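Honest question from a wet-lab person: if I give you the sequences of every part of a complex, can you actually get the arrangement of the whole thing, not just the pieces? Trying it with mine:
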Amino acid sequence: MKNYVSILGLTVIGALSLPQSAEASLISLNPRHFPGTECMKKAGTMGITPHAEIYNAATASNLSVVCPVLKEIPTGGMSGTITYIDQSPNTLWCIAGCDDGTTFQSTTVASTENDAEIHTMSTGVSAPGSDVSFCHFRCTIPPKNSGKASYLIGYSGK
Amino acid sequence: MNRIILAVAWGGFGVLAPAAATAQITTEDDHIVGQLSDGPLPGSACLVKGTSGSAHFDDGSMANEATTEWLYVTCPVVSTGQGNTIGDSAKEGVYFVDDSPDNLVCTIMAESASYDLFNSLASLSVSNDAAVHRMTGGASGVATFEQGSTHVDCTIPPKDASGHESSIKGIYLTDDGYPDRDYRGYVQLPGTNCRKVGTDGTLEFASDGSVYNSNTTPLELDCPIPTGMGDNPNNVGATIASTRVWYLDNSGNYNMDCTLRVEDGTYMNQLSQWSGTPSTAYRAMNFYGSNTVAALPDGFAHYRCTLPGGGTNLRLVSYSWVLG
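Yes, you can. This is the full assembly:
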């Protein structure tokens, strides 16, 4: 049961015409891509490159971030990918989580790379329920390795 | 231009939508058919305002783990800028947990891009349990503006005496109409979704969802853009004049510059624009038409802007994007 009351509504007068469109868009669904800068720092030292990538600027401690996923269909679970560079012998890993208010479900995925290449890892979370669900990635980026940083370039989900 | 406010009362009650059938992209009732640009965002997308409270967002929601202080957040809503109402269809709303004897308050704000106008609706939670509840836009919804942005500002109470936290689980408000082909791939976000880069400048959030620099050292911002380039892999802004950064520049000595970048880790396409002579009008930097930027399949996109100073007279109001 929704349990709230409205205390105030504010409005201004500003009539603008609504758009008129003619065609339906029934097309295939594609994941929504976000650059790494959409992620929120939870703990650690986060750097941002000119290319909207985020990286761990620290030499000893992990960087932990939470990355909100913009789903295309509001209900159900989520499938997504994380694009990254892992230049550390330690693990860059992410938890994909979805919460529909009743159930929280998650999946963990981890990188085993240790090079300067761009990699992508895929993951998914099954539908917690049939109501609107909110999904995110929580990622841990390892510290620099001999001066070489690890990056979260971007991520996607649908 | 000053905001003109007319206060009206509003009231409405409802229930959480019952479990629906498996999501169908042909379910018009839920706006799912047109659901190509906007969608639900978890509470962790909200930005903390000020220093009161203690944000806790490990599980994707935005909770206040302080014991005495309130937490103030502003939550960007990804909108399509179509000018349709929000909060009035099944499943739409602000999803929250109010496990406190105090009240959780949220205000849905629909802002005009080109005028200093807005529509808003404030709601007050009176629940005190661990269940997820939903605030809606009421039976009529909240009217949005064409190419305007939307945000939800919330005040989250502190933990109760038993240590129970209150939180914003997420927000799902869609202004995506049906049919919406002209707006396919369009997204609009308030300036508050931009991230501060580096240590210079002081990022401030204005009540209208815009941001400004209260310092005299330049503030660099990165404004992430949600894209689905596979939907429509044409160039950015090729056919629709809506790839823009809306701004206010009445600062005199300062100019704001922005660069739209599309990149995939290997390639980058970019285009820069800047604000012009001072004016009290809300204006837009345009990144469309002859200023087209080439899309990259599976690429990422963002605006990178610099606000050298100017306080509230130089503001990044919102930003938009569309694939042509």
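Two things worth pointing out. The longest strand of chain B covers residues 118-125. The radius of gyration of chain B is 20 Å.
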